Amino acid sequence: MKAFTVVCLLAVVSASLAGRQLHPLSDEFIAEINSKQSTWKAGRNFDISEYGLFKKLASGSKGIKNRDSLVTRLHDEDVEIPESFDSREAWPECADIIGLIRDQSRCGACWAFAAAEAMSDRICIHSNGERKILVSSQDVLTCTEDCGCDGGYLDIPWSTWYSNGYVTGGLYNNTDQGCKSYFLPNCEDHPNRCTNYVDTPECLRQCDDTSLNYEAQKTYGQVPSAFWNEKQIKLEILKYGPVETGFTVYEDFASYKSGIYQHVSGAAEGGHAVKIIGWGVENGVKYWTIANSWNERWGEEGFFRILRGVNECGVEDEVVSGLPDFSKF
């Protein structure tokens, strides 16, 4: 009878441990990630107390709202595509714009940041480096319909760039970078880290420096386009520059440090928007090179790489872009 009782207790304990879920920001979960795969390394980016911040950062993309209204631009597939490509190297005169990592801070504004960044890149690229200006992530965040700090759609900023335009503007408290600077400091520089979340500010149609004319600071785009497969995405970047995309964020992504990300552990947290700047191959593994908006201390100096060609986490499903319309600004 005693032996039977011991066996039962061991079975209960074993089942309990097997069913136990590790906290997604715990050292144990990070160790589990590293034990399951070899293409990327996990480490600590967020304290366990910052789980709410991670969830906020990981749920800013609502996907594409009006897919049917986007033009599907088809590129000639006979063009030779290089095995690796980096927009910073392809357009060195714009490398500082393309390589700039912004920080969305404690607002779910990834959709606005990725759009503003890709727009800025393309203005520089298609002016041959003569117009090195930043499109204001603040203007995109606050003046785009149905979007805000609780998330936004990937296509709406590009449609708004075409119809209404967005002004210039850069990082927090920097009036030298254009009309409207971002309203929040970097999380790393904030005394309380980023524990308190914020509402979306109102759309102010004026510059931080009131001597600047708001309308005169606007930039405009052409009708936006969408792309649904690896080859067309590569051809778009190769010809026109970085693009915006969205993907599903899983709990393990919080601990990304380096390498080629693929989902291995944890549940889905939400959607996140980012900017693809190129692609490559490492040890036979194909990847996209992507700029994040969680500051340059995260990941590979603000960037990360993710599996390419298998639609990892849906990263090849929601690619949107547009060209600048220089006839309007």
From TrEMBL:
Residue ranges of every copy of the Peptidase C1A papain C-terminal domain listed in the record: 81-323
InterPro entries to which the protein is assigned, alphabetical: Papain-like_cys_pep_sf, Pept_asp_AS, Pept_cys_AS, Pept_his_AS, Peptidase_C1A, Peptidase_C1A_C, Propeptide_C1A
GO molecular function: cysteine-type endopeptidase activity
Presence of the UniProt keyword Signal in the record: yes
Keywords carried by this UniProt record: Disulfide bond, Hydrolase, Protease, Signal, Thiol protease, Zymogen
GO BP annotations, alphabetical order: proteolysis
Signal peptide bounds: 1-18
Family listed: Belongs to the peptidase C1 family.
Official protein name in the record: Peptidase C1A papain C-terminal domain-containing protein
